[in-house]
Amino acid sequence: MIQKLSSFRLVSLCLLVFALFSGSVYQVNAQSQALNGQIEGVVTDATGAAIPNASITIKNNETGSERQVTSDESGVYRAPLLPLGTYQIIVEAPNFKRLVREGITLTTGQTATVDLGLETGDVSATVTVTSDTPIADAAKIDVGRVMNTREVQNLPLVSRNPYNYSLLQANVTGRPNSEFGVPRINANGYARRTNYQLDGNNNTQADRAGIRLMPISEIFVSEVQLVTNGFSAEFGNTPGLIMNAVTPAGTNGIHGSASYRFRRTPFYARPIFYNSPNDLPSNKADDLAVAIGGPIIKDRWQYYGGFEYIKRGLAVEPLRLITINNATRTRLINEAGIPAEAFPAAIPTQQDAKFFIIRTDAQLTEEHHLTGRFNYFKNLTSSNTNGQTTTLQRTIDFDDLSYSGAVQLISAFSPNLLNEFRFQYAKRNSVNLPSPFTPTGPSIVITGAEAASFGPAENLNTVSPLETITDFRDNFTLTRGEHTVKFGGSVSRIYDFRRSGIFSRFTFPSINAYLAARSGAAPRGYTSYTASFGDPEFEYKSHFYNAFVQDDWKVTQKLKVNYGLRYDLYSIPKADSSSLFAASQKFKVDRNNFAPRLGVVYGLRDGKYATILRASAGVYYDPPAIDVYARALQNNGNARFFNVTLTPSQAGSPSFPNNLSSANAPIQSIDTISPDFVNLYAVHTNFQIEQSVTNNISFTAGYIHSSGRHIPVYRSINRTAVVGALVDGRPVFNTTASAATRLDPRFNNISIAESVGNSEYNAATFQLNKRFSQGYQFSVNYTLSKSTDDAPEQNLVAASTLSLSDPTNRALDRGPSLADQRHTFVMSFVGRPNFDVENGVLRAILNDNQIGVIATANSGERYNILSTVDLNGDGLFVDRPVGVGRNSGKTPPQYNVDLRYSRFFSFNERFKLEAFAEATNIFNIKSIYQFNNTNLGAAFTGTGANAGVLVNGLPDFRNNFSTLGGATALDSRNFQLGIKFIF
After folding, report:
1. At CA 933, angle to CA 927 and CA 934, rounded to 5?
2. Which fold has domain 255-982?
3. What is this structure's pTM?
4. Is the peptide bond before 657 cis (omega within 30 degrees of 0)?
5. Which of 310, 319, 315 lies closest to 344 in space, CA to CA?
6. What's the DSSP call for residue 629?
7. At what angle do helices 511-519 and 326-334 cross, to 10 degrees?
8. What pLDDT is recorded for position 699?
């Protein structure tokens, strides 16, 4: 069935198709080549007249590979899909001196504009010019940057997690991860929507937003490409950030390194909010890494390989700290019989990880270049769980395996026709195993001032996920006259296997209620009972397809225009036709995913102080979070697998500690998907002006706007009978189950995913960049932004249970986005200055020193304030107190400075030793990023006619440790020492 296009997308599509077929398009986006770069420019004489048919040889200095191109009648030349590195360009034309242009560095995705001016004279004479491309990039449209190898290897990174570098890009907010987990990344006002790539190949887990498939380490990375807005039609699958990590390649020289990093418990400051005065959690870490690259056949075939082994304690991480208050701890030990060893000051999590990479690059013939790589990651994290109100009993051993293999073949069928073929197979298998501390019995949760969780973890023996991705991609690039047309597509096959947890959970309002139930005096004194039953294993398949076309048109020497069209088809898992609820019997496949793109770049002023204007607009689709469909498949009402949630007064609820059997289980709750569910898309526009300040410094100011449509939102729909209202007008539903009070009396709760959310984002960005010269480089950016939406999302890394507070009125959930952060400042700096002084001793002291700095500041993070009471009777327990807006809470501002210092010792020109120290939070600033309990119990709100009304206003979340568990801050100061042998 053909779906109806919206007016906006229909008009956009018509305009784009007309533009494409009229031949008036130009692609200048720096993100158009995710593993390669492009060099282009104009060949002219001394008067500025074009020189056609000039012979141009472009040579990679590191590998010896060459590309031959010829200038057209307008003097324009282009060499796309070039390997990264430094280049030399040799230009020859009759009646002109031979020109050699050196010192050109090509980074990931860059379109380097190198205009070549020839002097009249004998062709046997040679003119040599050494200079890099202009700092103000005349071929760049996107909002993004490329972190070069110098930054990747020399900025402070105690975590060894390069994904944390994503936070250095303008228009990105969030916070880093202390180990190899996922940093909290927001871009364009969208929470956790990141398209992770490895050498331009997909490295994004398909089930939830914002999770990478394979962790990476520094030995995997030579450059990092970060793009948030304005990327071309070739790229999609996110309305947020594209983060592309590019692996190192071998060269004609044998180069490598061997390094050892370590830290010990005395190296760091006491963790912020750590409540044990007599000891510190173990912070021991040992990290060994080796890497080597070189030629197999000089100028033809190179290799690179690396291995890293890390063993480190993670108890020092802020989230590992246990915040159960002393009175609660004492009562649970003395009265409830919980072993004292279940209450360490911090969860003693230990990480044991291995990384391996092998890559090869071969110039098979003059026409064919092959790149292949294999990456491997294995991790066992023992006693893995967050601390806070959790005891050691609820830890699991996390066993995680990932690997991927990929090939790229670039074929030059002629100087004007190139083809790029890519293939990738990637797999991740994550299993949650019982830890040595796992007990038997049900899971116990105590809420309120005595908050604590004990008993076995609820995700024991789960598989989440086992996912494989098989990708095929093919792109053609055709250069003809002033146009370079690129078109292609890809097919991705995604296989998922899941094993959910089988558990039962009793939630109690206090220790007294638990003790009374345990003794048999009040076996129904719990607040709620939740249990799962049946076969927890299931599998499903998805197929993602895309096609694109884009064409480059150099309108004038100053003006370039970009048009492109992308189409995505997300073939989601097939529904179960035997599902009991009609909406779960068939899932809609959204086929209306046309994404037009437009970009313009204009050189307003040339020369040393060049001024560049940029603008772009486009539609960007987000792939569906497959977990939405997985939930609807597994929790579909059939008896194969289901879960129930009951209050003590409901029929069938058990007496503690008894569990229900599947045969006697009462009606269940289900998840489903709206029949008109479609994919989220965003409409982005951005305007940028870049000004060269010097040959090596530029300043950029810009404005970004994004409108999000069809954001997925969950809503409770089964309870229909209204019996009253809260003070703010929210309806209160009848909790009695009957045909008169339920949309479908066969079920308890029905949570439906609907694509109805909308968002708005506006940002001003300011960037000051200096490329490496005079011994240092830096990047500074500031983002002023505001993000609002009406979409309390689920299926995010940090938000798994949010739902509409009033299922009948979405307007009540309009408020700041979870990603809203008004002020964000970031600075990165790498410096290795050289001092020319006469005194030899002083010269030796002052030189061979290097400093890397990352400094960040922001205005705090948003959080939601909820009630632990089901105020409106919809069965979801996610209601906000009366008068409290969604995401109205905000943490204090956050500040952080990381530092790395290196001292180099050279043995000769080939061998040297680096001794270094690096630190996180060097000034040990307390930066709170969350309050541990923002769910207010019955003691904070009224009852009866005043249900949900705050009794004494909002509590002090920051300082109310005894009742609400206080706060969690970013890492305290943490030092790491190391040595690195370089050759």
Report:
1. 95
2. Maltoporin; Chain A (2.40.170)
3. 0.91
4. yes
5. 315
6. H
7. 10
8. 97
